[in-house]
Amino acid sequence: MSGAAVAVLVAKARRRIIRRFDEAGAHSAPTAIAFTPRDRLIDRRMFARLQRDGALVESAPGRFYLDAEGLDRFRSAQRRRVGGVLALAAAAVGAIIALA
Predict the structure, then answer these.
(1) Rounded to an integer, what distance in angstroms lies between the CA atom of residue 86 and that of residue 88?
(2) Which end of the chain is more exposed for a tag (fewer CB within 10 A), N or C?
């Protein structure tokens, strides 16, 4: 599977999980919902990443809510990672052109 296809699947999993919490109104401990990610590796990994980065908070065993500040931090870190990859790619293309 190509890198672009994987990126699309990761983005879809992220949007699917975040949308589930948004639609349920799960934005604080009292409104937390029971949630188990789909039985797909990509969904389980994205769920774990969102938890690890503080976007999803477990308020009680198996009950989670979407933390707005944590989600902002998650998105900011993600933009920095993508920016770094793009900068590296641009530098590689520049080096190839310079050598040509």
Answers:
(1) 5
(2) C
